[in-house]
Amino acid sequence: MSAAAERVGVTELYASIQGESTHMGRPCTFIRLAGCPLRCRWCDTEYSFDAGNRMAIDDVVRAVRDLGVPLVEVTGGEPLSQHGCRPLMTALATAGFEVLLETSGCVDMSGIDPRVTVIADLKCPGSGEQARNLWPQLQALRAQDELKIVVADEADVDWALEKLAGPLNGVAAKVLWSPVYGEMGGAQLAALILSRKAPGRMQIQLHKVLWPDVDRGV
Q: pLDDT tens digit string along 158-172?
């Protein structure tokens, strides 16, 4: 089977406004791949855990092209849990799209097309999945990549700072801090970032500000 004919399970495919990362605010097409081996405590996309709609990669690229948005994010679930994720991203980049990958930081990130910008999570203790962080791969993130740290409380912030000074010391990726929606207020996180002199920048989930009552397709 050619890479273009390989099939991936797709939960959603839609255009919206990018709600996170340094690309926040940009029009973006989202490809939400199905399936995830993690069960983060605050997951807001549990509907993506099923098999999704099986689509050939060339059909996905065609659907993205029809939406006419040059920025594309492959997300999940955990998109790298599907074998077809890597050839899909390569096909999108080859078709001329700017490609972002949102991944958990807990699944092998090797072999990703270098044209793809990786946005990887650092899973803090509040998530319940901190034991699954792939430290060498997170540390190897490039300057074009991003390390997203979602925190539920002060303990998560201090734990993450310890890791940034330890196994992630010198990481080149941009560091992004984000509060768990509904658990930590933005002002509380801002105060912690200032008092701890934390590196990086703070973000909030813009899509939850724009569409607070919409769970899918945003």
A: 999 999 999 999 999
